[in-house]
Amino acid sequence: MTKVIIRENLIVSTTVLCFFLLFLLSWIKSAGAWVFGLYSEVDGQYFAWLCKFLIEWGKPFDMNTLNPFQGMGSIFIPVNSWWNPAAFILELPNSKLVNFVLSYSIYWIEIFFATYFLAKTIGLNKIESILAAEIFVLCLFPPFSAYFNTIPYFSLVPMFAHWFAIMSMMTIAYIKLGEGGIAYNLFLLFFLVFASFIFTMSASFFVVTYIPMLALLCFGFTLHNLNRQHLLWKTGFIFFVASLFIIMQGHHYYKDTAGYVSASDGITKTISFSIPETWQKHMSIFYGAPPMFSYLHIFGLLGGLIGIFCSRGKYRWIACSFVLIALIPDVAQFLFENGIISGSVSQVNVSYYLWNAYPLFCIFTVILISFLWRSVIRVLHLPGSSSYFFTYLKLLIPLLIIPAFAMHIWFGTLSKNRARLKEPNKTPIVAYLQNQIGLNVSHNFRGTTIAYLASKNSPLRQLIGQPDEINDEATHFTMHHYTMSREFLNQRFNNRHMFSDLWNFSIPTLEEYGQWVSLPMYIYFKKMLAEEGDNFNHHFLNVYKLDLKVLRALGTRFIITDKILNEKGLSLVMTQKHPTPLGATGYVDYPVSLSAKKIFEELEKKFKYSNVSSANLLKEFNNQLYKIHPLMRQENEKMTSYLDSAIISSLGKNHDLENLSYADLEKIRNFFKIVIYAWMASPPLYLYEIQNPNLATFSPTDIIQVNSANELFLRMKKPDFHFEKSVIVQDSLPKNIITQLVMAKNSEMHFEKNAVQVKAESTGWSILLLPLQYSHCFRLTEMNKPSSDPKSVRLIRANLVQGALLFKGNMDVKLNFDFGIGRNTNCRRKDIQDMQYLGLINRT
Description:
4-stranded mixed beta sheet; 52% helix
């Protein structure tokens, strides 16, 4: 018997190893696949940068880390990489491919065995548990997720695997709590507390989306095996953790964090019941996955029903919990949509609740398969489970079906796509910026940059297209313009010249991307760096209006743009062009690109009231191209390939390509623009330098006290308002100081790990305006004074978003950012109170 078990374990282990090696091969060969690659595209690249730079600029026990690379010192998304081995690995001095493959290997192992052990705990046997884990990684992990067309969240945010692994281990420990002796249970208690700490440090706000699922699952297990001793230990742990959470004011951390971000702007909702319409609208959240992957939803729910009614009580209460977990996304959306629940909780995307439950869907899918298999055995009178034949037949499931199917997918489809990882190019502009303002720990701050693209009447705006004049977007900026521009630049230069494509070269930007954009920065951008009616996204801060006076005050030194600028105070640093000869590079010049765009728009109008086949569309388009550029004939095959790609990507392979409607042409229009950019040329990029930006060098002497945000913006917009001379504050400062202000000199500022150090000199009282986002969460330490001496330096909020230091004599201070559970928990609440005081948030 022992030999049989050893042999079975060896066979199973070999199968799992081969299965993993297939993934390893796929990552090496197709790591750069677009949406379904490793740390793919914008979000994935952003999280890869985030994980790496959190190690370089953060500390192990900081929940929130100061981010010197965006938003004048915004906050990194609090997913502490020190407590995530797969994220920590990105800091190793290997090639990006090696680090990415190692990182995904750790995530794969974590989620595979977490699903396996959770399935075992629910009651599945060894083979069934392996099958559940294999189904999960096959459907959800890149690049195989491309075959099933599943949500690519492991390509974009792979740390979900780490968080689910921790949550699964916590669930298993909680289930077993109370089963053994005192020492055993104390050990489990210690493990649960330690795992809770790691979970909170590495997942932070994402913890919120796991709590409902974790609570329901544990509740189902508790009902499944009611026992007084177990119940005492379990309730004791919950009471202990809840008490600790309240004592450390953890609820304030989450509530106040959500209340200070940009998404909190305008989230108040009114209660309005429309049950049928709301339910119908938001059922798509649960059933909205692509067709093939939707079967996993159906099979999982059927498995849940079998667990409730057909398994003789083996899974009953756990299955009930799973069915409730599966309904959480729709219920949450219904509550948010009708205003029954509003505020900070309603900011969480309900899709996260569904993503977190996918391992359970796989587990209950296997319960369905197992039930059907046993039913077939009973109907066909096959040998019982004790027979030699049946024992090894069960091994065929993990041995052959899933790995064989994976090999079929790889060699039949995915192996043809060998998209290598692409490093963002160090273009001439990027190389220059890295040398001029590249940021390193303890190096002086030398300014930030912005990308000012697709502005009105600019070359890129013309190529991207302006909507009809009846549409407001014809005259107003939208996020669409920046999205299309950055993809254009990515195709042309292999560098978007914004966000993580600059941050990876340690180039700081005033612009910001992420869920942690602060409310005052969001409103400041809308009021000062955009026109009335421009459409802002809560999570992308881009400059929509060029105001050099404002940009100088915020510390911006360089502007990347596609437009020739003639504003006073700017100097042209360089022009970045690309080769244009068609024969040498496959590009055509910019005027031809505009002509090609116009041809496509004319074809749209021509076929507006009639159907057209894709072949006719391509043929006529190519014929028109030949007329405007003789060498287009050499590009016929490439052009057809690009357009085919656009049509198929927009409409799907199964669409009737011989009968395209005008609606179909509308669908492919935007995708066409991006795809054809790979063939078209672009206008040059220009790099301008702003003269005399604020590098912690502005020292205004005119103090204006304003307690209304509307009045504050009106003052700053006046032509005679100068940030070098005047500063707007809310704090009441002593009159004897205000009247004696002098300009500071010899000032400098540099970023450190989660801190900023500022030095300056003054012959009296001075104010130093910092290119740093203000927060009450900064703890100020005077480096040149004993801690026992009274403080002579004060940090105040200035011009709504900036910090300013009021000091006398020689100053050397360090501003440490300190905010987390149990640490300076009131500071964010004070920031929110500032916004309420100014009228930006309604008082409640």
